[in-house]
């Protein structure tokens, strides 16, 4: 095994599967049955051949009896094998299900930034491929140990009872093979790792290309992307071939050694038969038992090779399982939001931004209950970043941020996210009906509430054009809706969620001027007594409705006041205001 960490990961994975022990016991019993019944009947072959050679042909009864016992044993063998196959498939599917769900549950608890430093295809690969490889890695050793050790031991004992010398020859050769196989470990492990990594890159290439198919088409870049994917695929092919070439080589050297044992036993066995120290039945049985001894040796190599892949996958799974989660069991705001949001000299930097600058630089502001606040500034000035911090998508900031006096870092994420509703700049819709998308945050809203929210968000303005109204199927990520329609769906979702603080992050940016003013008017009416934070770079719609305006520039707040004060100031705000008028 590669190292201590890998070993611990694998052992921990076995521990996680301990709940299936009863099933594993059933599986083991069936396996012991079939292993025993695969080797035991050979004894009858030895007997029958020997009787055949030694006696006259009038001994039919012995053949019939022998044949019947053989038949019964083989039927039992088939039954045990079928049971084993069933239990194996059952355990395999249950383990796969458990690992996938465990992994997904953990993924849901991961801090948001985990998704910024890990690409999605790699995560999906862990859910789909690594989990199934790991299941193999749990079941195969179990099966191997029971089946092969038993078969090997029984074969060895039977063979030994027929001829000691011929059996003992196997030991040194078996040892040589084992050492040989173990020595190949590090190389197979490295090649398996390369195979997994290049597969992950390939998946990523496919997924990016399919997600960006619109850009590829309109920019006529099909050929270039095909070339990229081809390069990736070629690399995967090469890596797979490297692994295959190596395992074919090692596997066949292994087989050659094994075959030479058979040849040796044939020669020595034949010599013994001529010498009269071994019966023909004995030699035949030994040759058959040989098969029983050789299978475990070959299986050992296959398992060994497979386990290198398993360790790679298991490590990948534990990178997720051992990752720190979003904190829970923190404080909750007692009843509701009552006083204010205070931010004092807050600094924040994205982990994957290596410009050396803070994305938010000493931000201080205060939002009181009922305020209508605007965060304005050029795009890239840090408005959305602050909004995401408020809903705790990131909590590794420096400085202070509190809600009703409790530090944001100490408040339960779920609590915060129930109090604050956010409409993001870029809306994500799930495939399914429009209605399910609208009710996403609150599935049990009444007809009345839904109707009102449709009206207020401006969804009703395009609803009648949809072929099936609320039951219209929305394609993957709202494929069949326009940008402005998607934004309205997102606003409607938040209205239905009915939070106490609402963040509208450029949430009308894709709407035309008339629709924007209708929706804005509705929202201001609807959220009259609520706390609302708008962000915008176009200022006309929010200028007069916000009692507080913070002007952002390159991550800092450079101006603060209400519209009139800021216009008088003749600074960045005025410049931006005039630019969009
Ligand atoms: N996920 C991210 N990772 C790294 N940098 C980011 C990320 N999101 C935004 N940024 C950077 O942070 C800065 C502020 O972005 P943002 O808050 O989205 O600006 P705004 O909403 O004002 O347009 C920009 O320079 C942007 O490039
Ligand atoms: Mg933004």
List keywords for this structure.
581 residues, binds adenosine-5'-diphosphate, six-stranded mixed beta sheet, four-stranded antiparallel beta sheet, Rossmann fold, 21 helices, 2 domains, binds magnesium ion, 11% strand, ABC transporter transmembrane region fold, alpha/beta
- Helix segment count? 21
CATH C-level label of the largest domain: Mainly Alpha
The CATH architecture of the largest domain comes to: Up-down Bundle
Q: Ranges with pLDDT <50 over ≥5 residues? A: none
Shape: elongated
Number of strands: 12
Number of domains: 2
Average pLDDT metric? 89
**CATH fold-type name of the largest domain:** ABC transporter transmembrane region fold
Task: Please identify which CATH superfamily of the largest domain we are dealing with.
Answer: ABC transporter type 1, transmembrane domain
Share of residues in strands: 5-15%
Small molecules in complex: adenosine-5'-diphosphate, magnesium ion
Structural class: alpha/beta
Question: Main beta sheet, described?
Answer: 6 strands, mixed
Distance between the termini: 68 Å
Radius of gyration: 35 Å
What is the share of helical residues?
A: 55-70%
**Which strand order does the major sheet show?**
6-9-10-3-11-12
Pfam family, one: ABC_membrane
Main location: membrane
Subcellular location: Cell membrane
Protein name: ABC transporter ATP-binding protein
């Amino acid at each position: 095994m590669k190292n201590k960490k890998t070993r611990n990961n694998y052992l921990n994975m076995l521990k996680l599967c301990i709940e299936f022990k009863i099933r594993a016991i059933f599986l083991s019993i069936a396996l012991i049955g079939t292993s025993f019944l695969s080797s035991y009947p050979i004894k009858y072959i030895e007997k029958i051949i020997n009787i055949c050679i030694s006696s006259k042909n009038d001994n039919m009864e012995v053949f019939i009896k022998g044949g019947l016992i053989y038949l019964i044993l083989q039927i039992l063998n088939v039954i045990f094998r079928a049971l084993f196959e069933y239990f194996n498939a059952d355990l395999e599917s249950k383990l796969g299900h458990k690992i996938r769900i465990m992994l997904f549950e953990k993924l849901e608890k991961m801090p948001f930034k985990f998704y910024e430093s890990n690409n999605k295809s790699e995560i999906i690969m862990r859910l789909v491929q690594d989990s199934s490889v790991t299941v193999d890695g749990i079941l195969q050793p179990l099966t191997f140990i029971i089946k092969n050790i038993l078969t090997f031991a029984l074969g060895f004992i039977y063979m030994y009872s027929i001829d000691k010398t011929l059996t003992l020859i196997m030991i040194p050769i078996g040892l040589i093979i084992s050492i040989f196989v173990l020595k190949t470990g590090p190389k197979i492990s490295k090649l398996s790792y390369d195979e997994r990594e290049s597969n992950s890159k390939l998946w990523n290439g496919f997924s990016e290309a399919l997600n960006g198919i619109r850009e590829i088409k309109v920019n006529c870049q099909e050929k270039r992307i095909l070339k990229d994917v081809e390069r990736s695929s070629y690399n995967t092919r090469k890596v797979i071939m490297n692994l295959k070439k190596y395992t074919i080589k090692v596997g066949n050297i292994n087989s050659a050694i094994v075959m030479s044992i058979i040849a040796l036993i044939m020669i020595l066995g034949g010599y013994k038969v001529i010498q009269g120290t071994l019966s023909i039945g004995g030699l035949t049985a030994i040759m058959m038992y040989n098969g029983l001894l050789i299978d475990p040796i070959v299986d050992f190599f296959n398992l060994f090779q497979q386990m290198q892949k398993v360790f790679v996958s298991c490590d990948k799974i534990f990178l997720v399982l051992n990752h720190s989660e979003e904190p829970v069991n923190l404080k909750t705001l007692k009843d509701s939001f009552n006083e204010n949001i205070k931010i004092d000299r807050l600094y924040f930097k994205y982990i994957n931004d290596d410009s050396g600058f803070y994305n938010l630089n000493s931000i201080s502001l205060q939002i009181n209950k009922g305020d209508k606040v605007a965060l304005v500034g050029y795009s890239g000035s840090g408005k959305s970043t602050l909004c995401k911090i408020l809903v705790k998508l990131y909590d590794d900031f420096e400085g202070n941020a509190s809600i009703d006096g409790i530090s944001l870092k100490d408040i339960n994420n779920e609590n915060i996210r129930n109090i604050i509703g956010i409409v993001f700049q870029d809306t994500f819709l799930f495939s399914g009906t429009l209605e399910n998308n609208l009710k996403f945050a609150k599935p049990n809203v009444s007809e009345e509430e839904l109707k009102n929210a449709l009206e207020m968000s401006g969804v009703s303005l395009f609803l009648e054009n949809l072929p099936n109204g609320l039951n219209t199927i929305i394609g993957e990520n709202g494929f069949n809706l326009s940008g402005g329609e998607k934004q309205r769906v997102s606003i409607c979702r938040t209205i239905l969620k009915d939070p106490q603080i609402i963040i509208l992050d450029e949430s009308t940016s894709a709407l035309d001027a008339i629709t924007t003013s209708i929706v804005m008017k509705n929202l201001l009416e609807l959220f009259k007594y609520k706390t609302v934070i708008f962000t915008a770079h176009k200022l006309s719609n929010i200028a007069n409705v916000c009692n507080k305006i913070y002007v952002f520039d390159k991550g800092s707040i450079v101006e603060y006041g209400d519209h009139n004060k800021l216009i008088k100031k003749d600074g960045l705000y005025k410049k931006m205001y005039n630019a969009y008028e």
